[in-house]
Specification:
By secondary structure, this protein is an alpha+beta fold.
Length: 198
């Protein structure tokens, strides 16, 4: 009655783009089945995983507040280039839009907004590392820029990975695995999960 949770595939827009060729999107597909669907957050085109929509205005307001107050807990899985040396860590780098190169983002210590990502190694492969990521903030392209800046770009990333790392995977190796929040009707904690497809 209050929300719908979806496993977004990679390659599908969260919301419609301006060109007519970019009209197909997850929001419209969900609204076709649930006409009162309201947007709460987005995932990048290339990112797969858990997305949540509200089905009424009070639910939308309640969940939006949880996002604004950073109460929503999210985990992502990423495969990155190279072998990450330490087992876990934290990235604190302020981010802002790189206006001449939009939608690209960049690190800027003068005008960037605070951005924080916790990471933990799940598996080391021959030439790559699988990480669990827990963003404290939700800046645009945060995980992609943060990992590039520490020297481990996400494999398959068309924006931030060097050509060889971009071509090393058939898609962006970033997946929103879990999303935990309070139900807008009653406040009980719920954790939604979409298994990683890579």
């Amino acid at each position: 009655d209050d929300m719908v949770v979806v496993d977004k595939p990679s390659g599908l827009l969260s919301v419609p783009g301006k060109p007519e060729t970019h009209r197909d999107c997850l929001e419209d597909r969900v609204r076709a089945q649930f006409p009162t669907t309201l947007l709460i957050h987005r995932l990048d085109l290339e990112t797969s995983g858990v997305m949540i929509f509200a089905l009424n205005k009070p639910a939308q307001k309640h969940i939006n507040l949880q996002f604004e107050r950073r109460q929503v807990q999210k985990t992502y899985i990423a495969r990155v280039a190279g072998i990450v040396e330490h087992d876990e860590g934290e990235i604190n780098l302020p981010l802002i839009a790189d206006w001449p190169r939009r939608p690209m983002q960049k690190v800027c210590f003068e005008t960037g907004k605070p951005s924080q990502t916790h990471w933990r190694v799940l598996e080391r492969e021959a030439y790559a590392t699988r990480l669990e990521l827990k963003p404290e903030t939700g800046r645009s392209h945060q995980l992609r820029v943060h990992l590039k800046e520490i020297g481990h770009p996400i494999l398959g990333d068309p924006f931030y990975a060097p050509e060889d790392h971009y071509r090393a995977a058939p898609r962006l190796q970033l997946h929103a695995e879990t999303l935990k929040l309070r139900h807008p009707n009653g406040g009980e904690w719920h954790c939604f999960r979409a298994d990683c497809p890579f």
